[in-house]
Amino acid sequence: MRTKWLTIPIVGIEWTVYLTDEDDADLRDSNEHKSLEGRCLFWKNIILVNRRLPVSRLPDVLLHEVLHAVVFLSGARETCGLGESDDEEKIVVTLAGPLTAALAACGALKFPDLKPPVAKKEKR
Ligand SMILES: [Zn+2]
């Protein structure tokens, strides 16, 4: 079951972030059939985050998925020639860690504010 966590404007479009369970089919890797930490559903403006992650991992995973959305919406795939999804993943992984650290260091990431809600549930 998905729980609505946040809405985030990304490149002028509102995206909804849901916490979800490992058995959510959209959170499973299509090749390896394993559960992911997070995933963008690009054509639905949805980001899924695995609710089983420790709270300390949530900012990094959320920013990782936001970067995927930015790459998708900004046209960076085309302008940077990102033909393979592995290329995009390398760029996102390379940027997400330092970006999270920079935002956390200047106080822009307030970890208590990123705690997911507990009770509110929403149907898919
Ligand atoms: Zn990724």
Protein traits:
Arc Repressor Mutant, subunit A; 124 residues; alpha+beta
Offer a quick outline of the entry:
Helices cover 34% and strands 20% of the residues. The protein has 124 residues and is an alpha+beta fold. The protein has one domain: Arc Repressor Mutant, subunit A (Orthogonal Bundle), CATH 1.10.10.
Describe this structure in words.
The chain contains three helices and four strands, in the order E-E-E-E-H-H-H. The chain has 124 residues and is an alpha+beta fold. Strands 1-2-4-3 form a four-stranded mixed sheet, covered by helices on one side. The chain has a single domain (3-114), classed as Orthogonal Bundle (Arc Repressor Mutant, subunit A). 34% of the residues lie in helices and 20% in strands. Helix 1 (58-74) crosses helix 3 (85-105). It has helices at residues 58-74, 76-79, 85-105; strands at 3-10, 13-20, 38-41, 46-50. The chain is globular. A hairpin with a 4-residue loop joins strand 3 and strand 4.
Tell me what the CATH architecture is: Orthogonal Bundle
Q: What is the name of the CATH class?
A: Mainly Alpha
The counted number of beta strands is 4
Distance between the termini: 7 Å
Number of domains: 1
Strands of the widest sheet, in order across it, are 1-2-4-3
Q: How much of the sequence is in beta strands?
A: 15-25%
Helix content: 25-40%
**Rounded Rg:** 14 Å
Question: What does the overall shape look like?
Answer: globular
Largest sheet: 4 strands, mixed
Mean pLDDT: 85
What string gives the helices and strands in order?
A: EEEEHHH
Helix count, per DSSP?
Answer: 3
Please identify the structural class as seen in this structure.
alpha+beta
List cofactors, ions and other ligands: zinc ion
- CATH fold naming: Arc Repressor Mutant, subunit A
Low confidence ranges: none
